[in-house]
Every structure is written in structure tokens, then in C-alpha cells.
Amino acid sequence: MPLWLSRQPLVLASKSDIRGKILAAAGLRFEIRPAHIDERAVEAEAGVSDAAAAARVLARAKADAIAATVPGRPVLGADQTLACGDMRLSKPVDAAAAAEQLRALRGRTHELHSALALVRDGTLLFSCIETARLTMRDFSDRFLEEYLDMAGNAALTSVGAYQLEGIGIHLFEKVEGDYFTILGLPLLQFLEYLREHGFVDG
């Protein structure tokens, strides 16, 4: 018997390569239909400034946007925000912005908030948010330059300008939290919901 029991595959409303890889490795049937929303406009309309609340709102907005185009299908939206004290960061637009983010995070502890929202026909079926705390070491400017050279364009694909699953691990001295939360998809909580509601074999 296949692991995924639902008649139709899950729809992932995200273009994140790592989220797709996580779901595939977990044996879930899914297709990818990235949601294209104006994240800052969604946050402004919702009136959120807190990083965790923003992650929840954006995950739901992405799921809703795609769910409206695929009636009857379960759609998974996901979002991750980064907060360091009163500072919030988004994905860097270029190498200079990536360097600026890393200098701001160097030697400090920041929080990653990862949220999920599962929606079908406008109804929220499941949502969760998990937080991880990561402390960057006080690396040198020379190492920062070397890291950005090694990371290349990959540094521009994630908030904070790093991927913990790659060479970005060299930036850190301490990591507290679930690995999948850090990658942007709180998988264990999601799988528990899928088992309890008959989407996957339990």
C-alpha cells in the first residue's frame, strides 16, 4: 500500500527547492504551484509587524492564492521569517545586501519562525508555527568574503543569506531547534496531522 492515501496529490504553493526535497524525501505525493504574492502588501493589509505573526499570515496567503485555482485540492503554504532583536530581515537582493545581513547577524542570536498553512477551498485545515534560535560566530571579514564567494547566488535565495544544510553551517556556533523548522518546513507536526486525517498511512 502506498504511503500517500489521498486520491489527489498535495499542492505545494512554494518555489523553495528545499521544501520540495523535504516532502519528496518523506514520501508524499505532491505537485508544485508557486504562489506569487506581494508579501509586504499582505503584511501591511493584515497589520502585522511581529515576525512570527507575519510568517503565519504569509503562509496562509500563499495557500489561499493557489487553493482558489485548484478546487477540492489540499494546498500547503509555507513561509519563514527572521528576527534579530528589533530587526527583521528578508531575502537579500544582491551580494552587497547579503554581506550586510551577515555582518548584522555576526556574533548574535537570531530567530527563525517557520509557518505552515494547509487550505482546501478557502478553509484552513491545519496550521502551525515553530521557532528555532541560531547563534552566528564572530567570523572575520575575510571569512565573510570567502563564504559569499563560495555560496554564490545561493546566498540570495534565503533570508539571512545562508543555507544551514550547506556551507552556511560554517557561520554558526550554536543551533537550537528542529532541523526541519530551520529549513523552513515544520515537518513532524505536518506529518502528524496527515496521519490523523487519513492523508498518509499511519
From TrEMBL:
Taxonomic superkingdom: Bacteria
Could you tell me where this protein is found in the cell? Cytoplasm
Principal subcellular localization: cytoplasm
What cofactor does this chain's UniProt record say it requires?
a divalent metal cation
One family name in Pfam for this protein: Maf
Please verify whether the record's keywords include Lipid biosynthesis. Answer: no
Q: Name one GO biological process term.
A: nucleotide metabolic process
| Annotated EC | 3.6.1.9
Top-tier EC class: hydrolase
Keywords for this entry?
A: Cytoplasm, Hydrolase, Nucleotide metabolism
Active site at which residues?
Answer: D79 (proton acceptor)
GO terms for CC?
A: cytoplasm
Catalysed reaction(s) here are: a ribonucleoside 5'-triphosphate + H2O = a ribonucleoside 5'-phosphate + diphosphate + H(+); a 2'-deoxyribonucleoside 5'-triphosphate + H2O = a 2'-deoxyribonucleoside 5'-phosphate + diphosphate + H(+)
Which GO terms label this protein's molecular function in UniProt? Answer: nucleoside triphosphate diphosphatase activity
Report the family membership. Answer: Belongs to the Maf family.
Q: What does this protein do?
A: Nucleoside triphosphate pyrophosphatase. May have a dual role in cell division arrest and in preventing the incorporation of modified nucleotides into cellular nucleic acids.
Query: What is this protein called in UniProt?
Result: Nucleoside triphosphate pyrophosphatase
Which species expresses this protein natively?
Pseudolabrys taiwanensis
